[in-house]
Specification:
- By secondary structure, this protein is α+β, with helices and mostly antiparallel strands.
- Helices cover about 35% and strands about 15% of the residues.
- It has a domain of about 220 residues.
- Strand 1 and strand 2 form a beta hairpin.
- The protein is globular.
């Protein structure tokens, strides 16, 4: 009786909203077709290009000497960061440029934007912050480009001071400008991919939406040069050279990964300015350990470094929804509260893992 009642309610709802029902059926049909294409690709061994992309990411991570995050989401090795150089320099006045985090990041920007990318890098400041002594004072954000500050530095006559000023500006620009998409673009460009096949960009959403466009074109047999398609994350086996992506949109904090993917698909035909999934981050699949059911990804600007992380796979080697780990949470936080100020919450137990992100799509290398 109860089952038939719910069936009647569902029929009434669908009859009252035929357009909604049709949209749902269209989306379901579309993603079933996409999933079949994704599955057909996963049974093939990784391509030479995929292996090359993965190896370049591994080599760059090793060269940078960044952080390592385990499958519980814990940072177990803290490496070099974007604004630092190696601490163990023995007091030597000589240092290889490759040991500077900011110099490595500039390398990614130069590959993306050419020899002098400084007009694309932002430097931030806050009004009176350098002179004020009041921590409660509200400060207005100011912005300028690194190129503008570097032009002023050229007016300094002493060469050593001029160079120190230039490097100070670049270190500030590196910390103030997000560079995770520049890292992915660097890795893929270094693997020999052309601009027709991948949009090298300083924002992940550019190639995320491109991959969705490829997935939309394939069922229609429309030709596309793009090397990535968008696949459902939790039902597609990752291979080396793929990209795993997350979003940080507050409006979608409670949305399922299916809902986020469908929103992007619905926005493909509109203007790029109207696309709403903008705060995103992607990492390169560098290694799949099938026996341990783990996947290793490498991303840029993760905790201010090129970072490798180990993520969980399910028994059938698909991306696991359980990436939270066992890290205690606020219930285990016993540090006494400060005397003069109300205590700050140390964060929720569900977000104590550095792997617990809004992962929502796999960009599969075709």
């Amino acid at each position: 009786m109860r089952a038939s009642l719910w069936a009647m309610v569902a029929a009434i709802v669908l009859a009252a909203h035929p357009a909604f029902a049709q949209t749902n059926r269209t989306a379901e049909t579309f993603w079933k077709t996409v999933q079949a294409t994704c599955d057909a690709t996963t049974v093939r061994p990784p391509s030479t290009l995929g292996q090359r992309i993965a190896q370049i990411a591994i080599d760059e991570f090793t060269r940078f000497g960044g952080h390592r995050i385990d499958s519980n989401g814990r940072l177990f090795y803290f490496g070099l960061t974007e604004a630092e150089h190696e601490e163990d320099d023995g007091g030597s006045p000589q240092a290889p440029l490759g040991h500077f985090g900011w110099w490595q990041v500039m390398k990614y920007w130069r590959i993306l934007f050419g020899g002098d990318p400084t007009d694309k890098l932002e430097v931030r400041g806050y009004r009176d912050a350098s002179t004020s002594t009041q921590d409660t004072q509200e400060a207005t954000l100011w912005r300028t480009s690194a190129a503008q500050l570097l032009r002023w530095a050229e007016n300094v006559s002493d060469p050593e001071t001029r160079e120190i000023l230039r490097e100070s500006v670049l270190r500030a620009a590196i910390t103030d400008t997000s560079w995770s998409a520049a890292f992915v673009s660097y890795v893929i460009r270094q693997s020999g991919v052309s601009e027709d096949a991948f949009r090298f960009a300083n924002a992940h959403r550019a190639y995320i939406y491109d991959a969705f466009s490829v997935s939309a074109a394939e069922p229609k047999n429309n030709r596309s040069e793009g090397i990535y398609r968008a696949c459902p994350l939790s039902t597609t086996r990752p291979r080396v050279g793929d990209l795993i992506c997350q979003h940080r949109e507050p409006a979608l904090a409670d949305a399922s990964d299916e809902a986020v993917r469908e929103r992007i698909r619905a926005e493909l035909d509109g203007s790029a300015d109207m696309r709403t999934v903008r705060r995103t981050h992607c990492e390169v699949v560098a290694h799949v350990d099938a026996q341990a059911r783990k996947v290793y990804t490498i991303g840029g600007n993760v905790n201010q470094a090129v970072t490798a992380r180990k993520l969980n796979l399910t028994g059938n080697l698909r991306f696991s929804a359980v990436q939270k780990g066992q890290c205690g949470g606020p219930g285990h936080w016993t540090l006494p509260a400060p005397a003069a100020h109300p205590p700050r919450a140390p964060g929720s137990a569900s977000k104590c893992s550095l792997n617990d992100k809004k992962w929502f799509v796999l960009l599969q290398l075709r």
